[in-house]
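Entry type: protein chain
Record version: 2
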Amino acid sequence: MAIFGDLEDLPIHEVFTMLSPRTGILRVWNLPTDKFYEFHLYQNSICGLRVNNIIIDDVLQVKDCIIALINLRIGNFEFDKKSMVELLQKFRLPVEYTLLSTVAALDEIDAYRTYFPNAQTRFIISGSLDLWLGEDLYTFGERTFSLLERGSSAQDIAHNLGLNLEYVQLNLYKLRSAGKLMPVRAFESLVNSVRPKEPPPRTLMPSPTTMNPSPPHKPGFIRRMINALTFNRY
């Protein structure tokens, strides 16, 4: 027997909490956007996701989809019980932790929005990623490392990975605060300031003979006598 309802009456995070112990497919549709979601649930975890029949295998995109549904608060849902073999098995995201971290991210976006850098500011990795950053931030850094290694903006990352722009801005802000990122311009200025300067062009010193030219050569005494005798002979 299917379970169905309206997101206006039962928000999506409460739907997940209610259904997570079950095994089956949670469908969400009739949204203000043109998207249709299928969350595959198994033993209190999200094990698969389809969006418009496209399989999603990126954990960051799963959280991004939940953020989108929490923000929309309009639509319908339906849950159908399924066996495990009928489900996608792409990951195992604990429902409770995923919801808590997603809601926390939304709260942080509201709290730190005024501190976010411009969406077009390009950042570059300036420090190693460490596990003490926390699982979510470490995962974000790992997933975006190749883009940030060459310098990317929040807008670039959101477009390339299909993520919510403010969610990307939040994580860039946190990585920068942890000393793991620098704006590209600041990084280039730092590199230029510590780069060894080119030595000045070498100036050739004039040789001693050029500085103090010797006087014109004069014949010695004997040579002068020979010249005189020769001249008198004629």
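Comment: The mean pLDDT is 85.
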